[in-house]
Amino acid sequence: MSKDLYVKNLPFDITEEEIRKFFSVAGKVSYIHMGKDPKSGEFRGFGYVKMASQAEAKEAILCLDGARIKDCNIVVKIAREQKPSGPGNRKTTKKSDSPNQRQKRRK
User: Fold this and answer.
1) Residue 48: beta bridge partners?
2) pLDDT per position as a tens digit, 58-75
3) What share of the chain is helix, strand, coil (3-state, %, to 5)?
4) What is the pLDDT, as a whole number, of residue 2?
5) In this structure, what is the dihedral angle of CA atoms 36, 34, 76, 81, given to the nearest 10 degrees?
6) Could you give the strand order of the β-sheet that contains 75-78, starting from the edge strand earlier in sequence?
7) SS3 for 38?
8) Which residues, 6 or more positions from 9, have their beta carbon under 8 angstroms from its beta carbon?
9) What are the tens digits of pLDDT across the range 9-29?
């Protein structure tokens, strides 16, 4: 089990300090990342919380999944492992040629 948690349905006006305080009931919080819109920089209502140990992460899920913060019922679960992005990991999709493109190549 991972120590990294995915948290969604967070209130848009919550602060990182409030998240840290909320999750500290389950143990020591090592890291918090709040998901923000890349263009506007506004918080999007989700984030990642890393607990100090796997036991604390499990405790956080048991205690806080479904908990209510500022009129929002949050969802807490294990974060999926992220694959590093780079040239070797990108999925490329090749669109099939349209009939017009095939015809132009034949000429």
Assistant:
1) 6, 33
2) 999 999 999 999 999 999
3) 25, 30, 45
4) 75
5) 80
6) 29-36, 43-51, 4-8, 75-78
7) coil
8) 45, 46, 72, 73, 74, 75
9) 999 999 999 999 999 999 999
